Amino acid sequence: MQTARVSYARLTAMVLCLLAAGCTRSPEPTVESGGVAVGSSTRQITVDGRERTYHLYRPPSLPTRAPLVVMLHGGFGSGAHAESAYGWDALANREHIVVAYPDGLDRAWNVGGGCCGSPGRSNVDDVAFVREVVADVSRRLPIDPDRVYATGISNGGMLAYRLACDTKLFAAIGPDAATLLGPCPSPAPVSVIHIHGTADRNVPYDGSPGAGVARIDGPDVPSLLAMWRDVNNCAEPSTTTAGDVTTSVASCPGGRAVELVTISGGGHTWPTVPIDATETIWRFFARNL
Description:
Layout: H1 2-19, E1 39-47, E2 50-58, E3 66-72, H2 79-85, H3 88-95, E4 98-102, H4 117-122, H5 126-140, E5 143-153, H6 155-166, E6 172-176, E7 191-197, H7 221-231, E8 238-242, E9 245-251, E10 257-263, H8 277-287
Parallel strand pairs: 3-4, 3-5, 5-6, 6-7, 7-10
Antiparallel strand pairs: 1-2, 2-4, 8-9, 9-10
């Protein structure tokens, strides 16, 4: 009888403890209804019969409708490298956005014109892959379809242009050290910010053939941005220079804009000085829907 009373007392104490605010178990990772934990995770999806992967960063706090940035690595890179190298996770925590980092097959992307690497040679449909990445993230997290953006460096920036040419998914794109390859006959209006150094040897600013393995041979950068101003029916750009950075901004209907940021003497990099490319691109995205 004494044992029964003790057991009952212990059970009562446990129930009261669980109900009390100060009696909790060890904290567990917060998970949304779609099964996405706070922080970094890796997902696998099948596109065109191929198993593809992407990395996803979900900050601790998200609004009801969150922006999504797709960050596309350069040639010989990976989604994991892009996540660790370019500062988007820290920005995601501050700005409450979701960031996806897709992995190119054999560390490259098919962006048109036979570029680049084995995906370019075998005509892998990387546009379909990125479409499915956006769809997969949107099924699991509260993504605002009007605030989906793509950015990337080099080969990844070229894929951002390809996405702007071949889809209507993105409110804005932000290529860095990149160009447009392949046809782009009838793109939809989209905001564009392009960052480029005048001393880039892999994707030369003046449109001459690049010195890298892929021998990139696209249009000169000012002409490329003029094309996007025409697509968007923009006004004439205004230009300002501060030190080594020249910024040309054109306002366009629908709240869109086309902006070229030229870094005098800048090379084939994701710059942190004299500008921070991540901050610069995000500020543009945030004000251009």
